[in-house]
Amino acid sequence: MDENGCKICSYNQQVLDKLRKEAPDEGTITRLADTFKIFGDNTRIRILWVLFSQELSVSDISDKLGMSQSAISHQLRTLKQARLIKSRRDGKNTFYSLDDDHVKRIIEQVLIHVEEK
Fold first, then answer.
1. Is residue 78 within 8 Å of 112, Cβ to Cβ?
2. Which of 102, 96, 54 shows the shortest CA–CA distance to 79?
3. Is the pLDDT at 15 greater than 80, yes or no?
């Protein structure tokens, strides 16, 4: 258990020390706010959720979420620009996956927070 009583959370001590000592510069704050805005859309959260454990094509994501490929493609473009997902081409198909484990940790931490009583 950490100092805040969290049994699951693990923190990067260097980041915590930096946050305690100094506020981020305006550019960093803007990028941070922009990233939080990306997470503010239900469809994007659902897309990230289905990519949590597997790489999928636009068609696969569309089928899983019951949405048009056009709507999914639009959101994938936004997620990719924010570096939350990455893509890989295989012939004519493009497959999408979470960019890295940081994305998983963000979702996990927010889920822990919203499920707290």
1. no
2. 96
3. no
**Which residue, among 54, 55, 61, 52, has the nearest Cα to 108 in the 3D structure?**
52
CA dist., res. 69 & res. 64, Å (int): 11
The whole model's pTM is what?
0.80
Angle at 90 between CA 101 and CA 105, to 5 degrees: 10
Q: CB count, 10 Å around CB of 87?
A: 15
Q: pLDDT tens digits for 73-83?
A: 999 999 999 99
Helix (H) or strand (E) holding 85: strand 85-90
**Residue of 116 and 44 predicted with greater confidence:** 44
Nearest to 109 by CA among 4, 1, 8, 3: 8
